[in-house]
Amino acid sequence: MLLTLLSAALLPACTPERPVSVPEIEAFLGVTLPPGHRDLRSADEAGIDRLMRLTFDAPEAEATAFAARLVPGGLTPGDDAGITLFGSGFDGWLTALPEGASGGEVLVAGRRARKVVVAPAGPGLRRVWVAVFTL
To answer: How far out from the chain centre does Cα 29 lie?
Structure first.
């Protein structure tokens, strides 16, 4: 009963998932997207906390530099950083870690978490998945 009441009370506070513009993405991430990014897919939802997810392809050097700006400590080969848990209902999101993928995560000033995975996506390209959420 308590869970039902709590769920009903929280529902009006949640915004439905929606696509996000590049300026909104960059403002929330705190970094710019790589200039050569393509096939960008994004979703943003907010309630008590905010969750933004995005995926895109980019030239290898740009994807690597972008990931380094998001996770300054670097990515670890074979690490999914828990990002697969954020894929429900998002077309093109990871359900399993692709071969050759690396991942990492970082807390930003104790208020926000960033999770990133980068994997091969064809000759000279990398696919990037990012989940950023407020704490």
So the answer is: 9
Cα–Cα distances in angstroms (integers) from residue 76 to residues 45, 116, 126, in the given order: 28, 10, 15
Give the span between the Cα atoms of 79 and 116, in whole angstroms: 10
What is the pLDDT, as a whole number, of residue 135?
Answer: 84
Annotate 45-105 with DSSP letters as a single string: EESSSEEEEEEEEEEHHHHHHHHHHH-TT--EET--TTGGGG-TT-TT--SSPPTT-EEEE
Task: Give this prediction's pTM.
Answer: 0.85
The per-type count for the chain, helices as H runs and strands as E runs, is 3, 7
| CB contact at 8 A, 117 and 87 | no
Distances (CA, A) of 123 to 25, 40, 57, 91, 108: 27, 18, 11, 23, 33
At 7, is the pLDDT very low, low, confident or very high (cuts 50, 70, 90)? Answer: very low
Helix, strand or coil for residue 133? strand
